[in-house]
């Protein structure tokens, strides 16, 4: 019997580049674990003028995901910064546009995970994942946490992002802190373990 590779979409929204950095590492881990992976961006809702005033990083070259394309993948790893412990408005707007495929049950038995970026240690590292789970539940999408299989998640030698719910980074209030090596390792681990779970289902 020929087994196909699981198809995984790494779908992200990144303001200052931190989530994009995590997304690339997660995609790397997923590919090394045997997945067919594609990076996508969440559609922007801000104008160029607003983004410039915010000091946002230039948009990456990855394509913007469409609602219809969600149906083509076995699993999704969603990455986005937090706003008050939940997904940013751009992500909420994208989720709100999925009513048509929800009515068809098009995403039932798909898989999803979450990764994020916060300004501080206690700025939504876990709640951002938790407040996204209702979207998955309403679509019948199976949420896959990373647990504590990665020893880096219990590292006490430095301040790091990441939790049992998914990889994350701490960007500082002004976005000046960059993703650390430990956070990159956790992100890669998430891509690998997510692929293993989805791959079992696909097989």
Comma- or semicolon-separated keywords:
203 residues; Rossmann fold; seven-stranded mixed sheet; 33% helix; Flavoprotein_WrbA-like; FMN_Rdtase-like_dom; NAD(P)H dehydrogenase (quinone) activity
Q: What does this protein structure show overall?
A:
- It comes from Botryobasidium botryosum (strain FD-172 SS1).
- With 203 residues, the chain is of the alpha/beta class.
- It has a single domain, classed as Flavodoxin domain (Rossmann fold), CATH 3.40.50.
- It contains seven helices and seven strands.
- Strands 1, 2, 3, 4, 5, 6 and 7 form a seven-stranded mixed β-sheet that branches.
- A hairpin with a 2-residue loop joins β3 and β4.
- The longest helix is centred in the C-terminal third of the chain and has 22 residues.
Task: Report the sheet-strand fraction.
Answer: 15-25%
Largest sheet: 7 strands, mixed
Termini gap: 10 Å
CATH level 4 superfamily = Flavodoxin domain
Topology as H/E string? Answer: EHEHEEHHEHHEEH
Q: What spatial form do the alpha-carbon principal axes imply?
A: globular
Class from secondary-structure proportions = alpha/beta
Q: Provide mean pLDDT, rounded.
A: 95
Rg value: 16 Å
CATH domain fold name: Rossmann fold
Note poorly predicted spans: none
CATH architecture title: 3-Layer(aba) Sandwich
Helix content class: 25-40%
Secondary structure elements and their pairing?
Blueprint: E1 7-12, H1 18-32, E2 36-41, H2 48-54, E3 75-83, E4 86-87, H3 89-96, H4 99-103, E5 111-118, H5 127-130, H6 133-139, E6 142-143, E7 168-170, H7 181-202
Parallel strand pairs: 1-2, 1-3, 3-5, 5-6, 5-7
Antiparallel strand pairs: 3-4
């Amino acid at each position: 019997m020929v087994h196909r590779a699981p198809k995984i979409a790494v779908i992200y929204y990144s303001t200052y580049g931190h989530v994009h950095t995590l997304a690339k590492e997660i995609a790397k881990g997923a590919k090394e674990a045997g997945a067919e992976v594609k990076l996508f961006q969440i559609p922007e809702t801000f104008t160029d003028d607003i983004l410039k005033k915010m000091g946002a990083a230039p948009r990456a070259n990855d394509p913007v995901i469409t609602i219809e394309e969600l149906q083509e993948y076995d699993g999704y790893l969603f990455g986005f910064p937090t706003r008050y412990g939940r997904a940013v408005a751009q992500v909420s707007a994208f989720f709100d546009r999925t009513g048509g495929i929800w009515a068809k049950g098009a995403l039932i038995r798909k898989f999803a995970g979450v990764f994020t970026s916060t300004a501080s240690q206690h700025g939504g590292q876990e709640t951002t994942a938790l407040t996204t789970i209702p979207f998955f539940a309403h679509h019948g999408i199976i949420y896959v946490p990373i647990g504590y299989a990665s020893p880096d998640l219990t590292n006490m030698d430095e301040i790091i992002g990441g939790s049992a719910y998914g990889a994350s980074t701490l960007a500082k209030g002004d976005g000046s802190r960059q993703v650390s090596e430990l956070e990159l390792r956790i992100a890669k681990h998430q891509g690998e373990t997510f692929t293993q779970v989805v791959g079992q289902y696909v097989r």
